[in-house]
Amino acid sequence: MTMLTPRTPARLAPPGRGRRERKAAELESRTRRAGEQLAGFSARPGAQVLQDLSATPGGLTHAEAALRLERHGANVVAHERAPRWWVRLAKAFRNPFIAVLVFLAAVMWWQDPADPGVVILSVMVGVSGLLRFWQEFRSGRAADALKELVTTTCAVQRRAGSGAGAATVEVPMDQVVPGDVVKLAAGDLIPADLRLITAKDLMVGQAALSGESLPVAKADAPPRSAGGTPTEDLGQFETTDPVEADNLVLMGTSVTSGTATGVVVATGADTYFGSMAGSLVGERPQTNFDNGVRKVSFLLIRFMLVMVPVVFAINGLTKGDWDEAFLFGIAVAVGLTPEMLPMVVSANLARGAVAMSQRKVVVKRLNAIQNLGAMDVLCTDKTGTLTEDRIVLDRYLDVHGNEDDEVLEYGYLNSHFQTGLRNLMDQAVINRVDEAEEVVVDARFSMVDEIPFDFARRRMSVVLDRNRIVGAPGRPEHVLITKGAVEEVLDLCTHVRDRGRRVELTGQLRSHVTRIAEDNNRRGLRVLAVATRTMSSPRDTYSVADEEQLTLVGFLAFLDPPKADAARALQGLADKGIAVKVVTGDNDLVAARVCADVGIDVGHVVLGAEIDALDDAALRALAARTTVFAKVNPVQKARIVRALQAGGHTVGFLGDGINDAAALRDADVGISVDTAVDIAKESADIILLEKDLTVLEQGVIQGRNTFGNTIKYIKMTASSNFGNVFSVLVASAFIPFQPMLAIMLLVQNLVYDIAQLATPWDRMDEEYLRKPRNWDAKGIGRFMVCIGPISSVFDIAMFVIMWNVFGADSEADQALFQSGWFIEGLLSQTLIVHMIRTRKIPFIQSRASWPVMVMTVLAVLTGLYLPFSPLAASLGFVPLPAGYFPWLIGVLLAYCALTQLLKTLHIRRFGTWL
């Protein structure tokens, strides 16, 4: 026998592992510990549980409750609160590039407090941080407004003193304590983890914890014996999953029908729900966006740390003026830095958030927009996403598996005439029958008596009188119609209805009809049996004893139907390069059926129990090849997400239950809906106002457009700046004066960067939006080295032209040289935007949006105007001769042609552009 070693936090995440692994280990350990404790309560007799809790069936006294409240604390679970506005504001400025800009501004201020570059950099830093802060603050307030209003009190039995009788009082949920006896009725939220003491026809909706769409029956004791005698509450078999225990009801679930009383065994953080919530507070894991920005930022910083000292050394050695060389080195550092990067990224994300809000998507965390575009795996539950989140009668079958209207008629009669609270399946049967037929049924039958549903029998019956025509002879005819679980109803049957005849139920025929029911179960359908009996001695009252010698009519089969557009939405995601994996707490048969109906290649369905037996490496391999996971608990869902991430995927998780919170937090982008439980919405990055994959697909496109515009700016600016600095390096080595003044470099960058503020309003080519897009620091570095020097070739060409053609070859004429290079450098930077923004031929196959075109024209006009403007002298410019401009046009055209050629070669060699 193989012994399983307990998975303690130390074993799950040994010292030295990352914070994320420790958090995951803590969650798993807390959840397992809470589950084991609850399983112990389930296994013990109810009387023993009361004794262990020092409680009585009549409840606690008010004094005892007050003492326990002080000892155990309020019945609330830990949850993530939105940070104070000043904390959120500080975090908006936490960015590696902002730190670089602040450092450069400080050095420039130290060198010259009046330097306009200090103000320029400070404004860029301020606008970037404030833009991000305002958008996230506004989205956070919108998300808070989506929280549901929930019941805040519950019915508890309390006593005035030790000898006093019990009285039912309403107390706030946060004041419920262990040992309290709680009374439950239909519609109540379960305030804590309860061990049932009594229960009558209790049905509990626990989809938020288990993912199972249908309510489940709960009872204080196991089903009664074969003879019908109620069994004593001696506890139930011990289970590792408290959700499956029949005599436990858990915080976060709700009563759909029936009544019960239960003793509170755990409150607050000690509940099963609380064990999950406690590990979800604090610093969130690093996402794909965070890692990508960090890598790109440090790549650009490394380029700066290499280039700036080289330029400083060459300038100092060749010119002999080290103070001027230092100032020029700082200007080069600014020139090499895409100083608008934080602002452009924030503007991109903010615009994306606004665009998504118009598509019924609330973005709580701006970084999630890019993660949504980079997502290549989406994990989702099936209920409400792939299905309509409602139960319908799918088929009504005779004993041979053929559709039979008589089965529907008897099923309808049972559901229509029952007087108790109708469950979802009763309502589904009624909805299947037309209103006109209802009128006919009411005319043909009248109610005589009812044998209500209970958990032990798992069936209910009605007795109807077939209304006779007035004056017709004969005695009244009563018919008993029973509907319930297949096994329980079949045990009471002696005959079957076969093609209108009443046939004895032989052993062979019993096997046949059982197989029909099992076949439908395997197809993911919930099956009920319908049977009848014509009563030989009509009377006014009937009992359970009359449910015998029944004739099986057939079966009713139910399902939560797939959404009509689910298959199309899944295909749309697949076309965008996103693999969908279904991760559900529901059973494997239902999950497989739904997935097959919407076109998902199911393959082998992996159960939660299989996941527990695997280490992280084995789970990573399994998760990569598996499409459907069923019967998984919250810890297993989170492990699946991390396993996929470890395999190099950017993972999104769509969920709305308590059991989804850990996975939502661990995913690169957590997606929830406005109807989700609060903890799911708090853990999510994005909230959908409609639980619809089509809405999500639109968000993915917006995310890719946002990321594309961001990476476009980085590649354009970084390669252009690298080329400029390379040109400066060459010029510094061979020209006896500075090729451009520091103030000119700052103005050139400022004009160019202002023009790039239109980038968030640009559009990406359709081909770009078809695939997930990720940060690629190595690719950006390669792009800078390959494309950046192209501008240097033409900068050097302009140096030669200015030196030889216009005679700017001495310090006396350096202003002419600098003015000529300033215009060529700015125009080439500005126009090359259109070459780099698309892998197609610009202006012909792909045109920029009108805001980009307008800003390009304004930047070109500004560059041409400055040497002739009143500011020219203060900036060091001089007017350029008319003969300069034909040379300028020739250089720019040659620059564009060479860039297009090298772009084609780059795409052919590396298979990518942006």
The gist of it:
The chain is 49% helix and 16% strand.
Quickly list its features.
about 900 residues; alpha/beta; 8-stranded mixed β-sheet; about 50% helix; about 15% strand; disordered N terminus
Describe it.
The chain is 49% helix and 16% strand. The protein is built from 32 helices and 24 strands. The strands form three sheets. Strands 1, 2, 3, 4, 5, 6, 7 and 8 form an eight-stranded mixed β-sheet that branches. Strands 9-24-23-22-10-19-21-20 form an eight-stranded mixed β-sheet, sandwiched between helices. Strands 11, 12, 13, 14, 15, 16, 17 and 18 form an eight-stranded mixed β-sheet that branches.
Shape: elongated
Q: Low-confidence runs (pLDDT<50, min 5 residues)?
A: 1-17, 145-151, 224-230, 469-473
Strand content bin: 15-25%
- Give the terminus-to-terminus CA distance: 56 Å
Count of individual helical segments: 32
Q: Oligomeric state of the chains? A: single chain
Number of strands: 24
Structural class: alpha/beta
* Nearest-integer average pLDDT: 81
The largest β sheet comes out as: 8 strands, mixed
The helical percent reads 40-55%
Radius of gyration: 36 Å
Architecture blueprint of SSEs:
Blueprint: H1 9-12, H2 19-43, H3 46-52, E1 60-61, H4 62-72, H5 85-92, H6 96-111, H7 116-145, E2 153-159, E3 166-172, E4 181-184, E5 193-205, H8 207-210, E6 216-218, E7 248-249, E8 254-266, H9 272-277, H10 288-319, H11 322-336, H12 341-357, E9 361-363, H13 367-374, E10 377-380, E11 392-397, H14 405-417, H15 424-432, H16 435-444, E12 445-454, E13 459-466, E14 478-485, H17 486-490, E15 493-498, E16 501-504, H18 507-522, E17 526-535, E18 550-559, H19 566-575, E19 579-583, H20 588-597, E20 606-607, H21 608-612, H22 616-625, E21 628-630, H23 634-646, E22 651-654, H24 661-666, E23 669-673, H25 678-683, E24 686-688, H26 693-734, H27 742-755, H28 777-805, H29 814-836, H30 850-865, H31 872-875, H32 884-910
Helix pairs in contact: 5-7, 6-7, 6-11, 7-12, 10-11, 10-26, 10-28, 11-27, 12-26, 13-26, 14-15, 22-23, 26-28, 26-29, 27-29, 27-30, 28-29, 28-32, 29-30, 29-32
